[in-house]
Amino acid sequence: DGRDPYFEGTTALRSSDWYLYRDPNQTIQRTYVSGVNESEKALDRSISGARDAGLFSFADTDWVQTGLATHYMTYPYVEYGLFLALCYAEREALSDTTTFSIVFEAADKLRHLQDVVYYSFELADAFPSFDDTDIAQVWKQDPVWQGARAAVEHIIALDDWMEVVVATNLCFDRIFGELAKVEYFSRFAAANGDVVTPIIIASSEADSARTLRWTVALMEHLLNDPLEAKHNRGLVGEW
Question: Residue 25 half-sphere exposure, CB side, CA atoms within 13 Å?
Answer without folding.
Answer: 25
